[in-house]
Amino acid sequence: MIKIFNLNDVISIKDFQKKDIEFILNEAENLEKIAKSQEFSDELAGKILGMMFFEPSTRTRLSFETSMKKLGGNCVGFAGSSASSVSKGESLADTSKMFEAYSDALIIRHSLEGAAKFISDIVDVPVINAGDGAGQHPTQTLLDLYTIKRQFDKIKGLNVALVGDLKYGRTVHSLAYALGMFDAQMNFVSPDELKMPKETLHDLKKNNVKFHETNNLKNVIDEIDVLYVTRIQKERFPDEEEYSKIKGAYLINHDLVKGKDLIVMHPLPRVDEISTDVDNTKYNKYFEQAFYGVPVRMAILKNIIKNKF
Amino acid sequence: MIKIFNLNDVISIKDFQKKDIEFILNEAENLEKIAKSQEFSDELAGKILGMMFFEPSTRTRLSFETSMKKLGGNCVGFAGSSASSVSKGESLADTSKMFEAYSDALIIRHSLEGAAKFISDIVDVPVINAGDGAGQHPTQTLLDLYTIKRQFDKIKGLNVALVGDLKYGRTVHSLAYALGMFDAQMNFVSPDELKMPKETLHDLKKNNVKFHETNNLKNVIDEIDVLYVTRIQKERFPDEEEYSKIKGAYLINHDLVKGKDLIVMHPLPRVDEISTDVDNTKYNKYFEQAFYGVPVRMAILKNIIKNKF
Amino acid sequence: MIKIFNLNDVISIKDFQKKDIEFILNEAENLEKIAKSQEFSDELAGKILGMMFFEPSTRTRLSFETSMKKLGGNCVGFAGSSASSVSKGESLADTSKMFEAYSDALIIRHSLEGAAKFISDIVDVPVINAGDGAGQHPTQTLLDLYTIKRQFDKIKGLNVALVGDLKYGRTVHSLAYALGMFDAQMNFVSPDELKMPKETLHDLKKNNVKFHETNNLKNVIDEIDVLYVTRIQKERFPDEEEYSKIKGAYLINHDLVKGKDLIVMHPLPRVDEISTDVDNTKYNKYFEQAFYGVPVRMAILKNIIKNKF
User: Fold this and answer.
1) ipTM (interface pTM)
2) Distances from the Cα of A176 to the Cαs of A25, A166, A229, A263, A294, in angstroms?
3) Is 3.40.50.300 the CATH number for A138-289?
4) pLDDT (tens digit, 9 = 90+) per residue, A28-74?
């Protein structure tokens, strides 16, 4: 196990080496008791996390805020609707320089792919990408990996099905890449219209990652360890009809998973892609997954801010 | 005096036994110096209060935030306008499970009666009801009682007039119930259209609480100790004309209270039901009442979170 | 050097004696290491700053929040869009009394000149004016002075050009007044339509302050130490055409300042009055100026809250 975290910014999961990910997953496990308020820390007392949410994001925003505050730090920033009033015509570069003046680390969500990278090049404080359009959302990937590792105590050799919208779903692209690094096998289960992009498949092949594509979940349900479901997002569709046709086609319910040896995960929010009859079963790991966002983000914040000082 | 607070959630004043209320009022008095920054506490350091304000509420929100922060804790959440973006079609149950993952206690305001109870049934962290539609707002009732007790050093035997909108006013229903528990006498003073609901009167009778109804404040002004005024809320009226007719009819001014031996209370915000010529007199207790929200909510937060750990 | 700060409120730079300003600038220098997270303080632990932003203000709001939190304190309040829901028809006086109940100090931004003074007359906690319409914004002036003093180690005898909109620019009126107290010389550089108001000039003359007016920056560029640029705010103009004509006429770029012995300042946000080709030069002090808002506001908060207890 390495002793230090080398990254200055968290922009893309592709910037992580396998040992960087292992370090963060290990740190997260150490921080779980603090995340659950069973232990106390003020390691980041006096430190400020600047939050630039140009797009609304409740889950990611709240879990970063919680993570910072559980370590004794605090947050300043803006979110969503107030973003426009922030700028008064100001450039993204100038807004970022302002936040740099007030913060010990920055977290940014923006609709434009590349926004976080752009900012990390012009400010001296650490920058964390909390989602840049169709681009990356690396801390989501880390908490997904952490959830799997906490359940199985390993990732290598597991069989993971990624189900639903694999075309527009930012989450699954990064996760497939990362699972490949850890020698998991993957099944990509989606309607033909929403298959994993060729580019992502190409990357995986280049890295000798084993995967299989299908449009029928039943073909693979008996052999998988993890059923990772994604929301089919209405707003990604140009056409209401296309959305209606597909919606519900990949519904996960208790009947489907009953008697199987697998867990169900979901980045949330869910609409109706997982039936609530799964909620009170052992298959449900999606609420725990949401909680794991806290220790994982604590691990990131603690180490990236510590590196700066 | 009992030594512990037994409730796991604060949903309705009806869940409180008299000894629970006495415990909180006593605790609030102990915490007043911290509320005034004359003493310091970090008893809730590292603890996070999740704030789910589906309806805007500045006073309640700010006083809960202040209470949590004065005890060394911190808050995460959303309020009002951003609430819709929270859900993206997510169910109230799922949103609550998310907040549970991030928080050591939850506070919720919602337009639907029963929302807080519903949430308390599905999450493991303590839930505090900060107003559920026409339902309950128990911490308002507790701070109202505290204000009276701080003034008279007792509640038993006092004569309290509840004035204004007794039909739609959530505050007065709970307060009448609680005053009954403490053997106060009550006068319900309202226009005929806005009388206390039959159901509330029935409850009071069942508990042998003494009350009297009138539409003329002058009939009772000489015999009361507390004049509790409520805002006649325009938004509760289906009809602008009905509102205009009644508005101002129950105006409290200095002439009315001059020479009387009583205090004036109001849950705030006031519009024009109390004339500002009362503000700088000894009768005015409504601003102090607002402050008392802090020690009372500190007492709730401290004990309900302590019970969890 | 005096040892104490005498002001109870920070409403106008005109309330400051020279020694009060010197005290704050000196304190700010002591607090810089904390502002940069090189040292730690929890001097304001348990203290709450109430933030009443009736108008949106990201820069001022964030730097006050950062300042409070870097000293271990915390903040409650509202900003901009949610302001209307705060009041529900409540008077400014009542809203202020509510905030007084929750806070150890208040900061207010309001569109009406005199709003901060009005509030400071009715509440007992310290009040800080964060901009009242066309009126004052004293902490901006203090951080402007601090930026100059940090650069030149003095203010006396410097030659400062205030450039751009000198008519509507709240910032420059207060700054001119304060620079006069410190015996700086001033050049007021503006189009004829946007000259410094007669009233301000009259004040300066009365105090024997040396100043010079011109509409051509080139006349003075060789002799100045500080080039203080202000945004020409579209929203201040009754007429789009007038705005278009002037916009860009006073553009500062690298060609203009190259080889000169001066620094460029700007209260930010900038739109296009300073070309980005100045950003990576030694002339750029506007980003540092933004940072200096933190130690200066820390100095104000620390001393004004300390005075209260």
Assistant:
1) 0.93
2) 17, 10, 13, 17, 22
3) no
4) 999 999 999 999 999 999 999 999 999 888 899 999 999 999 999 99
